[in-house]
Amino acid sequence: ATLCVPCEHGRAWAKWGEMTAPRERSARILEYVDGFFSSEVKISARLVYLIMLTGTLLYSAAAFVEPVLRPSCGKQPDTVHAVLGQGLEGGLETAPNPSYRADPCRWDRYAILLGMNSWECDMSRRIV
Question: Which terminus of the chain has a lower count of CB atoms within 10 Å, N or C?
Answer without folding.
Answer: N
